[in-house]
Specification:
The protein is of the alpha+beta class. The chain folds into two domains: 79 residues, no CATH class; 44 residues, no CATH class. 41% of the residues lie in helices and 19% in strands. It is built from four helices and six strands. α3 packs across α4. The longest helix is centred in the C-terminal third of the chain and has 20 residues. It is elongated, with a radius of gyration of 23 Å. The structure holds zinc ion. The site of zinc ion has 8 residues, from loops. Zinc ion binds next to loops.
């Protein structure tokens, strides 16, 4: 079984459907809303496959109160919220955000007199352990 992503242009809707390759080549995709044949949607150029959130394995973003059970739900959300973007940890913009944040943390730690960020973390861990030791 393969997860196919479909797009119905008249409904302006993205959806997922799970079916066999044979079933797909025989019947293609059908829009769940209007029942018309729909085209296969390749997202950002990647071929569709079995990946991304599923009803049995939802993507939950607790702090935002969001839950997605399919890739097309995410795309739909991104389409409705132009400012929002889902990033994976391999995404280059996430990488650069991570690197920038890390660099900031490094320079802040050095400004506080630590050798580097790692040094500050170790110090904080020791402090925490010391406090916990006093409490017990
Ligand atoms: Zn439709």
């Amino acid at each position: 079984m393969i997860l196919y992503e479909g797009r119905c242009r008249p409904c302006d809707k993205l959806f997922d459907d799970v079916m066999s390759v044979d079933e797909f080549s025989e019947n293609g995709l059908t829009c769940p809303d209007c029942g018309q044949p729909a085209e296969r949607y390749y997202g950002h150029g990647q071929p569709a496959g079995i990946s991304g959130p599923l009803p049995s394995k939802p993507l939950v973003i607790k702090h935002a109160g969001l839950e997605f059970t399919s890739k097309s739900q995410i795309k739909q959300y991104e389409a409705e919220n132009p400012g929002a973007r889902m990033l994976t940890k391999d995404d280059s913009s996430w990488r650069s955000h991570h690197d920038k944040t890390r660099a900031k943390a490094e320079s802040r730690a050095k400004a506080r007199g630590f050798r580097d960020y790692e040094d500050q973390c170790n110090h904080q861990r020791r402090e925490r352990d010391r406090k916990n030791a006093c409490r017990s």
